Every structure is written in structure tokens, then in C-alpha cells.
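TA notes, week 10

Several of you asked for a full example with nothing omitted. So below is the full record: C-alpha cells for the whole chain, then the designed sequence directly under it. When grading your own attempts, check the secondary structure regions first.
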């Protein structure tokens, strides 16, 4: 199966209710839609970062209440790049497990059943977009050729207690910085974080995943069947703006689990790729926004 014959689809998760970073982020304007010092939003920057060679379509998953905000960012970020963006709207968000299942189901039915999906949050900051582009294509090649799921680990620059970690195991390829996954580790205390930093094989969990839609479909059916069955049982409804909306009782009752808990911590078909030094932040603290404001964007 040649990679060049398959579409590579960025899947951008723009859910959440804006509670974590109040008052920077609010329920009316959550983190993906907060303006940065350059006047753009994190969602805008993510869309622009993904509008690269070999990408002609994207998927954005957002809550229905933020449809207008999402449409505004999509129009401003991708219009001139001739990228088709499929906006999938959840009547009520149910965490990243359900959002990814929604995107996988939609991609297989409406784009290509074997498309390569590169899943990422809408609200992270990456300073070096060129380095991201190189990693993006390397990851897609590995995920498709080996039919594995890839997660991404950021080598820590300090002993942070703000991030979850991935414990990287044996290196699988000489030059690709791809390893087996030993374990996912919750946010540590300060002493444990210092140990992780000294060890060198504990990387920050970047919250990104790359895999074929078929692999994700099989894995979700095996490890999160209730979530995927709820997606499959929910009719696709088109809004007046041709956005796709999931809304029925099966979807309202689906369990709200992160993709990590629903799938990634259970499967053995998973590798971790070390990210390059591309200036990554999950923008999860007020200090991260303050630091960004001091940079020349």
C-alpha cells in the first residue's frame, strides 16, 4: 500500500469548554479561539501548520456551540490554500475518545477508508513549523508502512509536573527515533519529574496520534466498542452550512473518556516517535501565554 496513493488527513480536535485557563479561556471563548499576540488564534495557527504538501483535506471536530468560531478560523486559515475542511460538530463533547471515533468513522465513510489520520489538539503551540512538517511526513510513512499507531513524545527541557509522560522503550529504527512504548505515566510530583528528566527515556506526551483510519477503526472497535458503536448508531445530520452534526440519545449517553484511557493505554500496536526540538507547548498554564506574549510572533 503506497503512501502516495492515500490521503493524509490532519484531524484537529477543538473541543473543550474553556474551564481550565479561566479567565484567559472561557466557556464563551475557549482556548483554541483565544487570540495570541500576533492577532491569530491557536486553531488558526494549527490549521496553517497543517496546510502543507500532500494535504488537501482536513477534519476539525468541535462542539456545536462553537460552530461559528470554528468556521471563522477555517475560512481565514485555509481559504487561499485550497484545502477542504470538514467541520464535525458534537452536540455535546464527550472527550477525545469519542471525538476521534467520530472523525475515524466520518473519514472512512466520506474520504477514504484507509486514509492516514494525523490527530492533534487545536490548542498547542509549535514554534518551528518546518520541523513539524518533516515529522508529519515521516510519521505518516511509518504509520502506513508498518500499520501501527504512533504517539509523539517531546524530550523534556525541564522537570515539569504539568505534563503526562510516555516511557520510551527499545529503539526500533536506527535513524527515526521511534521506540516501543513501555508505559503512559500520569503527571508526576516534583521529585519524580526530576528522575524522569535525568533518565532521558521519559518524554512529555504531546497528545498527537498518527495511524491509518483502518487501524484506528479496528483498535477502537476492540478496545472502546461502546464509544464506536454509539458513533455508528448516530445518524449523520447536515446543518444548513453543510457541517456534520452528531446528535441523538446514543451519542448523548456515550462515556466521556480520553483517547489515552479509551485506547492508547490498552493496545500493544503502538509506537512512540520522539519529536524534534520544535518549540512545543500545550499552552496549559497562564505562564505559557505570558511567555508567548514576550516572543516576537
Amino acid at each position: 500500500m503506497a503512501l502516495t496513493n492515500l490521503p493524509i488527513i490532519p484531524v484537529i480536535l477543538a473541543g473543550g469548554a474553556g474551564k481550565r485557563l479561566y479567565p484567559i479561556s472561557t466557556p464563551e471563548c475557549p482556548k483554541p479561539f483565544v487570540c495570541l499576540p500576533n492577532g491569530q488564534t491557536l486553531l488558526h495557527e494549527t490549521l496553517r501548520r497543517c496546510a502543507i504538501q500532500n494535504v488537501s483535506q482536513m477534519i476539525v471536530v468541535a462542539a456545536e456551540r462553537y460552530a461559528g468560531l470554528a468556521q471563522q478560523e477555517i475560512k481565514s486559515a485555509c481559504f487561499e490554500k485550497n484545502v477542504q475542511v470538514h467541520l464535525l460538530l458534537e452536540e455535546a463533547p464527550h472527550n477525545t475518545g469519542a471525538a476521534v471515533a467520530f472523525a475515524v468513522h466520518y473519514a472512512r465513510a466520506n474520504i477514504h477508508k484507509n486514509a492516514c489520520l494525523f490527530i492533534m489538539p487545536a490548542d498547542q503551540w509549535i514554534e518551528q513549523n518546518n520541523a513539524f512538517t518533516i515529522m508529519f511526513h515521516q510519521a505518516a510513512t511509518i504509520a502506513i508502512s508498518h500499520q501501527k499507531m504512533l504517539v509523539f513524545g517531546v524530550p523534556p527541557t525541564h522537570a515539569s509536573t504539568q505534563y503526562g509522560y510516555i516511557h520510551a522503550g527499545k529503539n526500533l529504527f536506527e535513524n527515526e527515533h521511534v521506540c516501543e512504548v513501555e508505559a503512559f505515566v500520569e503527571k508526576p510530583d516534583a521529585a519524580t519529574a526530576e528522575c524522569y528528566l535525568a533518565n532521558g527515556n521519559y518524554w512529555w506526551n504531546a497528545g498527537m496520534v498518527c495511524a491509518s483510519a483502518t487501524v484506528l477503526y479496528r483498535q477502537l472497535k476492540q478496545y472502546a466498542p461502546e464509544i464506536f458503536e454509539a458513533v455508528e448508531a448516530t445518524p449523520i445530520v447536515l446543518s444548513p452550512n453543510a457541517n456534520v452534526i452528531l446528535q441523538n440519545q446514543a451519542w448523548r449517553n456515550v462515556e466521556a473518556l480520553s483517547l489515552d484511557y479509551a485506547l492508547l493505554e490498552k493496545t500493544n500496536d503502538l509506537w512512540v516517535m520522539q519529536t524534534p526540538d520544535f518549540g512545543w507547548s500545550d499552552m496549559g498554564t497562564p505562564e505559557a501565554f505570558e511567555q508567548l506574549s514576550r516572543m516576537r510572533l
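The CA atoms of residues 251 and 257 lie 13 Å apart. Use that as a sanity check on your answer.
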